[in-house]
Amino acid sequence: MSAGWRLAEHGTPVTVLERDDLATGASSATSHMLHGGLRYLEHYEFRLVREALHEREILLAKAPHIIWPLRFVLPHHAGLRPAWLLRLGLFLYDHIGARNRLPATETIRLDRHPAGVALKPEFKHGFVYSDGWVDDARLVVANAFDARARGARIRILSHRSPNGRLSPRSRRIASHRIAHRSTVARSATRA
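RESULT FIELD:
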């Protein structure tokens, strides 16, 4: 749905076909995390992280009613990477992309911070960074409404089965038959 919304946002004619309903399938099985891809920094995927952080800011601005900021505590111990390297990664995470709506990373003393109460005494230092949680089913529906308002066609094929073939030359679905109980409808859609 997100790709359909993005195309409609840029004025590209688009039809989105959903097999069962909005926000089923992959959208219903996510972690609900709205993050900037912190783990990709260690693989030097700076462009990917920057894009994800930029997208996170757009979503925080667009849908604050279904996105909640979360603070995560990352305790440090000797078995991890050096503390300075983790802090450097979190500094990059804060600054490589946009971060206007979430608090910056903090370095904390876990023996003096409420987050350290439940931890073992060997955890002395840690970091607190920000990401978010999203009600992604509602985000999918919001994207569908916005895409439709921008001219996209949204087709839900609930309890129906599409049959068709893709013509390799024209990149056109030659025809698809949508059967629902006793009725059959035919139409052609460009892919």
